Amino acid sequence: MRLATYNVEWFSNLFNDEGTLLDDGGWSGRWDVKRSDQIAAVGKVFSALDADGVMVIEGPDAHARRDGVAALEGFAARFGLRTRKAVIGYINDTQQEILFLYDPDVLTVRHDPREDGAPFFDGTIKMDLDVDSHPDPVRWSKPPLELEVKHKDGTEFRLIGVHAKSKAPHGARNDAAVMRISIENRRKQLAQCIWLRRRVEAHLAAGDNVVVLGDFNDGPGLDEYEKLFGRSGVEIVLGEGNGEQLFDPHARMALSQRIGAMPITARFQNHREGRYLSALLDYIMVSQSVRDMGADWTIYHPFDHAECFNDKDLCAALLTASDHFPVVLDLVV
Fold first, then answer.
1. Torsion of the alpha carbons at 279, 167, 63 and 126, rounded to the nearest 10
2. Rounded to whole angstroms, how far apart are CA atoms 101 and 223?
3. Could you give the CA distance from residue 256 to residue 262 in angstroms, rounded to a whole number?
4. How many domains does the chain have?
């Protein structure tokens, strides 16, 4: 069984309101990338993944007259993907949906939100974010996608697709604003991760096979503001102390060393400085029961993964398709 998570930058911009691919020479949401080129690249990457299920982050918009499920299934049909069915959960208002694209011959999937351990993810939770003894309301801008997934052999999984709060100081006009907005965003991001961890703990207590996958916009040692809070959101979701923890080998590697080679899942271009920045943002965290299924992780990085680098077409497609790279989990079920 192969699962993947893939953040496709501005995937929604590749479709019109009817869910038809805009396969033309117009500009996509990506810097200096035409829509036709991004469409071909994303199709190439999905074909190469050949996964049984892909958690699509920043998926096609599902507002008003737009149907993100239909758009994604049309995309799958265009490229002859066996992952040809899609499911969505709570629709958000950011034009970046979380959807799961899967092979119905292998997996049976349904949206199955819970409130075990914490409120439904489309609701509100109160936490004291600024340590003033007054709880603040916390919401997800992109509520996690909770799925019940059954493999054709009968094995059941609980999948939670995540796109956590970005910590980037958008709108800041000076250094003071950068600091203020960055700290506010980190507080919100950590609160979301605490909320998510409570749900994870409920599933672990029930003995579920748990897989949490997506873009956390965070990681151990990612920025200087982590020192103010003592830990990253990723560490919170993985689990701390004596309780049962989730496992992701890339997170483990990042946590075990602050200097040296690090796994990378995203590559951003700083156009003002003329250079690229790389980061570990995307994860597939699993319970011990899932890890025991011969779990094997791969990042489809165009330069760091030999198979991707040696396939020049795939290497180019990964760079054109998105600023994130897919993370793949192979299991024996």
1. 130
2. 32
3. 10
4. 1
| Structure token digits, residue 38 | 């991004």
Rounded Cα distance between 147 and 159, Å, is 5
CATH of the domain at 119: 3.60.10.10
| The pTM of the whole model exceeds 0.90 | yes
Token pair listed for 221: 């040692």
- 167, exposed or middle or buried, with CB in 10 Å at 0-12, 13-18, 19+? buried
Q: What is the mean pLDDT of each run of 10 residues along the chain (333 residues)?
A: 98 96 97 97 98 98 92 98 98 94 98 96 88 83 97 98 77 69 82 95 98 87 53 91 93 83 90 87 98 98 97 98 98 96
The Cα–Cα gap between 138 and 117 comes to 16
Range of the domain at 49: 2-330
Residue 103 DSSP SS3? coil
The CA distance from 33 to 26, in Å, is 9
Query: CA-CA distance, 136 to 128, in Å (whole number)?
Result: 5
Residues contacting residue 246 through CB under 8 Å, at least 6 positions apart: 200, 210, 212, 237, 238, 239, 285, 286, 287
Pairing of strands 2-7, 53-59: parallel
Cα–Cα–Cα angle for 70, 72, 78, nearest 5°? 100
Bridge partner residues of 324 (DSSP): 266
